Design the sequence.
């Protein structure tokens, strides 16, 4: 039906612009769920969310309610949250421990932690001669077609075929290496719980904004300026400015021309990295102590390599934005064509001194949480963009900034010198979108 109405979806995407329907058409959204979010590798959660056998955490992949669960063999499985009897969700709570097995709350069918049927009340008398026999695979809770994890970060793909997780991640796996390597133990654990924000816009607006280096000094200028004023007052009174204010004032002091000095690296499958950071190696006693702990764990040379990794954001298309130097990520869960949930997660570096955690936590609260004005600034733009796009005021969204000046090397598109505000990441995302949406089934 959609194919009849929209002959060729690639007509909706040109290298430097995109039709508005890509954001507002409910049928295109359904097709996106089928061909993108229910096909490619999507982030489910971190293994430390389910540390013990029987621990589970529910998560939405595309339109599918799923359960991430730790099995008796310690392996993490991802199951459809659906009882094979009459369709009841087997887990009604967001998270918990189900014990030795799952028990459906409707008619008490029970299932092993890997989804296999365990028991049906009075199965022999009730189902004799029917298709419901113990060896019928339809009696099991269905599993995600593929589950894999990298350094504790669990992904699932609901399609049996496609690149494996490492091939899919490609260079963007550096996000997880950068998070974990900053721990002297090479591991992180999740900080329970996450923030959840529902934005009134299409999911792609969030992802496009993540590597949009043009917007911070405009969108967040008022927040940055207000923080700068207070920062200066405190500095005047006490002689030094607290780092937490710097996290916010940087949005006003890092001007557009400075953002242009950063760079984006755009990879296959729509992934992108924004380089540059506002400085995470102050010479205060806490940082110096942390550096000593890292040097002891890894040696001086490797410590330097870890701490000089120059990443601001890694975007793993189509559902994850990772801010690895500060151990936080945002998982994007589309709910409808004009409604998107983001989960904002934070991780603790195992073995790192407490003040380093506190500093990253401050950034999480001040910049990424629903309580901060930074987040509110962005949310307002997302809602206004979506409302404008739904109007008859125009047909196209432009991604033409620095178009034609990208540098392509071995399949990686780099923005040119002093073009950090290029819209190359959006062009790259829409290239991947078109490939997924028009792929032969
Ligand atoms: S719906 Fe689950 S046991 Fe009936
Ligand atoms: Fe922003």
Sequence:
């Amino acid at each position: 039906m959609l194919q009849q109405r929209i002959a060729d979806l690639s007509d909706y995407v040109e290298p430097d612009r995109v039709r508005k329907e890509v954001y507002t058409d409910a049928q295109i959204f359904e097709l996106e769920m089928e061909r993108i979010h229910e096909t490619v590798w999507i982030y489910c959660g971190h293994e430390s969310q389910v540390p013990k056998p029987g621990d589970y955490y529910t998560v939405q992949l595309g339109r599918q309610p799923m359960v991430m669960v730790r099995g008796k063999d310690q392996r993490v499985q991802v199951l459809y949250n659906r009882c094979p009897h009459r369709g009841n969700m087997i887990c009604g709570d967001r998270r918990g421990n189900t014990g030795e097995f799952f028990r459906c709350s409707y008619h008490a069918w029970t299932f092993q932690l890997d989804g296999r049927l365990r028991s049906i009340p009075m199965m022999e008398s009730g189902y004799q001669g029917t298709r419901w026999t113990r060896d019928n695979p339809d009696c099991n809770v269905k599993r995600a077609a593929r589950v894999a994890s990298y350094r504790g970060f669990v992904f699932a793909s609901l399609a049996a075929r496609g690149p494996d997780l490492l091939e899919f991640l490609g260079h963007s796996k550096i996000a997880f290496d950068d998070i974990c390597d900053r721990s002297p133990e090479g591991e992180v654990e999740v900080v329970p719980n996450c923030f959840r924000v529902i934005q009134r816009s299409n999911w792609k607006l969030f992802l496009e904004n993540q590597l949009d280096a043009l917007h911070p000094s405009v969108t967040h200028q008022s927040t940055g300026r207000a923080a700068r004023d207070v920062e200066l007052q405190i500095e005047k009174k006490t002689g030094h400015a607290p780092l937490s204010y710097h996290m916010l004032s940087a949005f006003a002091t890092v001007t557009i021309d400075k953002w242009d000095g950063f760079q984006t690296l755009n990879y296959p499958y729509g992934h992108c990295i924004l380089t540059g950071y506002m400085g995470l190696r102050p010479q205060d006693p806490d940082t110096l102590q942390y550096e000593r702990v890292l040097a002891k764990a890894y040696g001086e040379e490797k410590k330097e390599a870890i701490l000089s990794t120059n990443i601001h954001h890694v975007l793993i298309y189509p559902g994850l934005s990772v801010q690895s130097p500060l151990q936080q990520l945002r998982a994007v869960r589309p709910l409808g064509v004009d409604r998107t949930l983001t989960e904002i997660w934070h991780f603790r570096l195992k073995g790192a001194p407490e003040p380093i955690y506190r500093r990253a936590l401050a950034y999480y609260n001040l910049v990424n949480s629903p309580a901060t004005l930074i987040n509110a600034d962005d949310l307002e733009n997302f809602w206004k963009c979506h409302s404008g796009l739904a109007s008859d005021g125009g047909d196209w969204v432009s991604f033409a900034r620095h178009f034609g000046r990208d540098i392509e090397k071995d399949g990686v598109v780099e923005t040119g010198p002093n073009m950090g505000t290029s819209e190359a990441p959006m062009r790259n995302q829409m290239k991947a979108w078109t490939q997924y949406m028009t792929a032969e089934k």
User: Anything to note?
Assistant: Residues 209, 215-216, 219-220, 378 surround fe (ii) ion (ligand 2) (CB under 6 Å).
